[in-house]
Design brief:
Rossmann fold; about 25% helix; transferase activity (chains A, B); about 525 residues; ligase (chains A, B); homodimer; 5-stranded mixed sheet; 3 domains; 9-stranded mixed sheet; BirA Bifunctional Protein, domain 2; ATP binding (chains A, B); cytoplasm (chains A, B); proline-tRNA ligase activity (chains A, B)
Amino acid sequence: MRMTKLTGKTLKNIEDEFNIESQKLLLRSAMFRNISPGVYSVLPFGIRAINKLLDLLSDQLEREGFQRVYIPSDIEFEKSVSLSLRNDMKSYKDLPKTIYDIFSSGREKIKIKDGLLRSKDFTTFRTCSFYENEELLLQGYENIIDFYKSKFCEMGLDIFSLKSYNEKNPADKADELIFTCGAGDRTIYSCDKCEFRTLEEVADFYVQQYETDDKEIEAVHTPDIKTIKELENFMNIKAENLAKTLLVKAGGEIVAVVIRGNRELNPYKLSSILNVPIRDINMAEYEEIDGNIETVPGFVGPVELEGVRIIVDKEITSVGALVTGANKKDYHLKNVKYGRDFVGDLIAEVSYIMDNDKCPVCGGSLDKEYGIDLGKILSLGKITDVKNLQYKDKEGKSKGIYGASSYIDIYKLLSIIVEKHHDEDGIIWPIKVAPYHVIISILNTKKEEQVKLGENIYRELKSRNIDVILDDRKERAGAKFYDADLLGIPIRIVVARGASENKVEFKLRWKNEKEELDVNEAIEKVLKLLKIY
Amino acid sequence: MRMTKLTGKTLKNIEDEFNIESQKLLLRSAMFRNISPGVYSVLPFGIRAINKLLDLLSDQLEREGFQRVYIPSDIEFEKSVSLSLRNDMKSYKDLPKTIYDIFSSGREKIKIKDGLLRSKDFTTFRTCSFYENEELLLQGYENIIDFYKSKFCEMGLDIFSLKSYNEKNPADKADELIFTCGAGDRTIYSCDKCEFRTLEEVADFYVQQYETDDKEIEAVHTPDIKTIKELENFMNIKAENLAKTLLVKAGGEIVAVVIRGNRELNPYKLSSILNVPIRDINMAEYEEIDGNIETVPGFVGPVELEGVRIIVDKEITSVGALVTGANKKDYHLKNVKYGRDFVGDLIAEVSYIMDNDKCPVCGGSLDKEYGIDLGKILSLGKITDVKNLQYKDKEGKSKGIYGASSYIDIYKLLSIIVEKHHDEDGIIWPIKVAPYHVIISILNTKKEEQVKLGENIYRELKSRNIDVILDDRKERAGAKFYDADLLGIPIRIVVARGASENKVEFKLRWKNEKEELDVNEAIEKVLKLLKIY
């Protein structure tokens, strides 16, 4: 490519203040143009950068037997793929079946300061895989995580996967691919002693054991006391010694959830435990409670509570003397003890992590970090919502099909690469993902020998299938150096005064040193470098 | 590609009855799968066919200096491109600027029986070009038409361009690319004597001259006569001797349009003439007329009509004695003559063509045909709706920029290619657009020598960069022949009994003859064929 032909002039300054630096570079380097708040078009240099990433992902997946399809947006992705391929998965011989798809779409909620991390339009690289049974599904699921991790590592990124909430199939597993970054909008807790790391939404934490004594349960008259705060004051106790009993509507069922008074219910965890989509998890309305369940709003407690399943947060089982509602107007109970005074239908971890909670693995302290979620892998378990999605096994028996899907946000991927690899002058592309490997700058286009040598090197490198860009513009030398640094092409060859003696200046974008080389030496060095990386 | 690895099994039958045959073949060959009414996903063979078409278009455009960008859908395409590139077009040296874009989107109105010609999702290949002045714009506009025509010709299609309505810029020119096809939904009139062809919406026709006499204008009492039909009976005349005067709201203005009584107003033509978008062309409401214009609804006529511009259909100027409304309740005028009794502010062709109208060029008879609109080219004229879209000319003077855009529907393009190139057994790909050039069928995969020879030819052709597919499935010979015909790969090499003597069967999809060839002869023949086409 010749820079005189490349559409998209670099910019010196960007007015917008972004949460992270890379967003400025994506605009200044003319990969993207902002055309209205949160809306970006992609210019040729950006198209090239994006296609490079897509090719790296696609090529590897194609080698692993994934095939590209195009899935329209009318129906949920996983369901559309299942419908499209169900006739191609009638026998165990047809499985596993693995596809990928590149999809551009628009989101409702944009965040202008996040730039391309949360722009109106985005491009998703998606996969969907089908397996014979759960074991093969889990294996395939891990393979997909490993595939992304290793590809992102090649792209110069440290990405880790964290357990996540599965919005397609709440009871099933999901992982998110996370890049840590101070300006990220996802909260991560990580142990300062062991390897434990968790996303806030699904964070488990260390459940402490408390000393208990065996005082008898006792009713206390608490007239007009309804809030935790009022109760704390009235009984002179701390919220953590209280047990809140929340009546929650989960799908069609009302359940009572018992958590410590100082905690918040975690709807993601409850959704997973009950396998009810999070949109169907809501606090029960007064009218829904009244009549069906024998209790009094404001005084709900787990002791002798009838008519609902009781879900007890694991922490509750280890606290000694609790204060709970008495299911009777103006009364609470004190010295309530799990196991003796009430039991749960289900014991689970259903409350949100708080600062100062400890590592659930080793009890170490947890540090808070922030991260950007680059993508997600979802287990679909056995797919039951698609008619006739069945295969015949070796014995000719009809069986259900298991699935997994994954999503990568390509604009985020590009942003993160630039965020990780830049300095104050511009981008520093890792060689593997560089839109061009070499930039040749003809410093003075009025000098015939410089133009001739520059053109020769350009032709030579092109003939060897090297991605090269030639700065043949009639610009000042300073502007050319400025743009070369901003665009971040890894290898720079400057054709200047030495041209008459076939000498060029050779520089790597990530190093300060330049060296003067003979043209052939320079070309050899390019070939060698590209072989190594 | 190995057929054992290719996702998407061919189908024997498709239940749906489509308007055109190709839609069945696109589904039967597993290029597309129908997942809900009007909604299709694209399977790997389809992805390959589409990418081939996109590559053919892109490669040629790239050679001509067009660069690929991605334009989001939030704002109108042409406006988005202008906003994206206005900083790159500040000098005459930056022009012309030409880009293209590949865009997938969904349409509101689907037509299930049209299959992929009007499916929910579709992919558009779009271009946008910017020029220094109108002359260069017109030249660029013609170049784009020529580019598409020649590419489509290479793809084995006869496509012609017809003048069309320009919905972006009604006063400017537009062309549609049309494929004639009995089941198409666009009506075309074509002259049986000369080369004239026109789309119904914008069709001009031969305006006949009528003999006139010079009778005096005369008022006729026509109590309660309001419709053309009533007037025809009452006055015992034919509708064509009547002049309808329609009060039309065009944007903010009310205009009177005078056309013959037997004609319909053509809103496309009126939109172009007045340069008012068609959505803003409506019959004026009674309340809008009353008061402002001195007339009586039902008795509107052009004679002494004040307060509105009068637009006179060209045909009206050549008819002798007309009957018109008298702008007075219960009165019409007869013997009205254009020029003597009234004049128009504008004379133009504003009525719809009718069957039996003659060719406007030579007066010959017009035949009705049907066609499919594959794409459109639009002149944008001087672009005025984008702030700061200006360049400095050689003298440093600020000037406006001229533009043109074009749209091609890729699913339609693929459909039309298949429609044109198929027989009762399946598709017959023209070599230029064939997803694969060669199919090698190993007839009996249990015979080691057949497998070995098939694999050898496959490797050999792949190493020569030939797009080849290997049918290595454990299917019956009949199924392999059936699929090879259905998929329509141009060159078929069958490895059968002759394998032990290095003989294969060679067949071209579009010919009936087969020949037995030595393997090397067969490979030579493939190379020779691909060089010719």
